[in-house]
Amino acid sequence: MEKDINILIVDDDLKVADLLKINLLSLGPVYVRTIGTANEALEFLDQEEYDVVISDLRMPDMDGLEFFKSMNTSHPTIVKVLLTGFGDLSSLHEDMKNLNIFHFISKPWQKAQLQILMESIFREIRNKREINLLQKELEMVITSRDNLRSQLKSNLDGMLDSFKSLMKLSSHTVTVHGRRTSLMVGNLATRLGKSQDFIERVQTAAFLHDLPLLAYPDHIQHGLESYMSIHEKQNYERHPEICANLLGNVEGFSELAEIVRYHHENIDGSGFYGVLGEDLSDESKMIRICDCYDEEETYNRNAHQSTLDYMKMFKGKWFDNILFDEFYEMMSSLKN
Ligand SMILES: [Fe+2]
Ligand SMILES: [Fe+2]
């Protein structure tokens, strides 16, 4: 059987040390070594690993308390047990507490008591080992999870860059619209005191929200519904869903997918898919506002103030009241 607990006995009386060693060996798979002086023991502890040190109180070169004091500096985690004569005990309680001595064995000891004491020490040591092992395993799990996260993050960043490059190559209209919407929504989120994570997420979603329009003709890319045939309008209304499916296929983009899915929804349920405000995320509601502003100002060629006035008519119907008020204030201050 593997000896899993190492014990060092320090006692100048070698007969006592040997007797204690015999008793300890009878308790189970333990390794026991005896040594005659405290100074030798301190040297020994630097060379071999011990779990428990049992030291006599009275020794010629250094007494047990001094010895344990030195051990507290060099080997603080080893369990310390004091071997004492019966008469010594009453004056030792304070020292034992101060020096973190686990317990004492009084000479002559009774085998049954020794057994109870040592078994409780062994249990404690094994529990500590188990906890250390679990902590190490946990650290390894956390490290590998962090590595996976950073790997995934760099993959996703690469994927986003590819989407953005594709947009730039394919359509100036969709790219510029995405960039402007992203800029506005980022400023709005900052003004609303949103977290950095939120701001990054909503800006990315805003940049990509019209990605499928790359495959549509110009007048549809501009979102000019009055120029669309019924069939084209039906196709156009599918672009948020197509965008969500496109992003949703990439692991790690599910949040972005759900934001873009609802970027044409109105809080009164009159949007493309009839979703009500209470079921919409702030991100989707904010993109709805900024998206509408950019389309009205750019494609419908409305002036800044008339765009804001037009949008204000739909506050509480299309646009969330609080978010729109903040947006209105932000845009008014930007252009003034
Ligand atoms: Fe859109
Ligand atoms: Fe848009």
Descriptive notes:
- The structure is a single chain.
- It contains 14 helices and 5 strands.
- By secondary structure, it is an alpha/beta fold.
- The protein has 2 domains: 5-137, Rossmann fold, CATH 3.40.50.2300; 171-335, Hypothetical protein af1432 (Orthogonal Bundle).
- The protein has a 5-stranded parallel sheet with strand order 2-1-3-4-5, with helices on both faces.
- The longest helix is centred in the middle third of the chain and has 60 residues, at 111-170.
- The radius of gyration is 38 Å and the shape is rod-shaped.
- The protein starts with a strand and ends with a helix.
- Bound molecules: fe (ii) ion (2 copies).
- Residues 209-210, 239, 263-264, 291 line the site of one fe (ii) ion.
- One fe (ii) ion (FE2) binds at residues 177, 209-210, 291.
Strand content: 5-15%
Q: C-alpha Rg, in Å?
A: 38 Å
The CATH class of the largest domain, by name, is Mainly Alpha
The run of helices and strands is: EHEHEHEHEHHHHHHHHHH
What is the secondary structure topology, with strand pairs?
Elements: E1 5-10, H1 14-25, E2 30-35, H2 38-47, E3 52-56, H3 64-74, E4 79-85, H4 93-98, E5 103-107, H5 111-170, H6 172-191, H7 196-208, H8 218-221, H9 230-236, H10 239-248, H11 254-261, H12 282-299, H13 304-312, H14 321-335
Parallel strand pairs: 1-2, 1-3, 3-4, 4-5
The protein binds fe (ii) ion (2 copies).
